[in-house]
Specification:
285 residues, ABC transporter permease, 13 helices, transmembrane helix, MetI-like, mainly alpha, membrane
């Protein structure tokens, strides 16, 4: 007869084996649809046994500048989404049933429309003779149309609109896990509401902030439709460069090298965000 401790270990081992078997179909699907194409991409980038494509992608001034511009855009979108999303998530975490239902409906409503349709809608809104400029001229607030399209402003507006829910939801989930008695205890000990928020609520919500920032940054680096249409060719992202190499030049090996460089940069920044967040959490504790 097995001892109680050994019996628990056997049961735990069987449970882990059962859970692994449940995950096997998903792992096989990921292996076929994700891991294998990525490996094929890596093999294509070193076609002919040379690293010339990587040298060009990583050292050529043009491609490095485009990569840095893509990271700049992704960083700006992430920062704007964080500033806009945190108050919304905080309000949702404190709202009643009706407020929560209406807020979630407004937040998730854009998911029912494709990104392409939403981007074309912004073309109508932001153009020189678009809805926004016409309304501002009719109200007498401006005389010359504002340059809201085919520049960085239009790209940021469109990308923030698409990606904002991906920042709100992780922060909201993180705020829900915070015991409401903790900030109340801080206020009961004499801390003003703003200090209780900065010293208690915000540090405890950093897992959601980290998840949202990492998700927004990674998604922003790979954006194609929104910057291509709203940027008007003046804001170039790496994804647009990769598409150009494939569609116009049929240079698949170099496009694969660019994709690999983008993937490595994305993973490195993702790891950095996680490390900075863990460091900030330790500092607050």
């Amino acid at each position: 007869m097995l001892s109680p401790g050994l019996n628990r270990r056997v049961i735990a081992r069987r449970r882990e084996r059962g859970l692994f078997l449940l995950a096997v179909p998903a792992l096989l699907l990921l292996g076929v649809l994700f891991a294998w194409p990525v490996l094929r991409l890596l093999a294509m980038s070193v076609e002919g046994g040379t690293l010339e494509h990587f040298r060009k992608a990583a050292l050529d001034g043009l491609y490095v500048s485009v990569l840095l511009e893509s990271m700049k855009v992704a960083g700006m979108v992430t920062a704007i989404c964080l500033v806009l999303a945190y108050p919304v998530a905080f309000w949702l975490s404190r709202a009643g049933r009706l407020g929560l239902a209406l807020g979630m409906f407004a937040l998730l409503l854009p998911f029912w429309t494709s990104v392409l349709v939403r981007t074309y809608a912004w073309l109508v809104l932001l153009g020189r003779n678009g809805v926004i400029n016409r309304a501002l001229r009719d109200w007498g607030w401006i005389e010359v149309p504002l340059p809201l399209l085919h520049n960085m402003t239009g790209v940021l507006i469109g990308m923030v609109h698409v990606l904002l829910p991906y920042m709100v939801l992780p922060i909201y989930a993180s705020l829900l896990r915070i015991d409401p008695d903790l900030p109340r205890a801080a206020e009961g000990l004499g801390a003003p509401a703003w200090r209780a928020f900065l010293r208690v609520t915000f540090p405890l919500s950093l897992p959601g902030v980290s998840a949202g920032c990492a998700l927004i940054f990674v998604l922003s680096l790979g954006f194609f439709i929104t910057p291509a249409l709203l940027g008007g060719g003046r804001v170039i992202m790496v994804s647009m460069l990769i598409e150009q190499q494939v569609r116009e030049f049929l240079n698949w090996p170099f496009a694969a090298a660019l994709s690999t460089v983008l993937l490595v940069a994305t993973l490195a920044i993702y790891a950095l965000i996680g490390r900075l967040t863990r460091g900030s959490r330790l500092a607050t504790h």
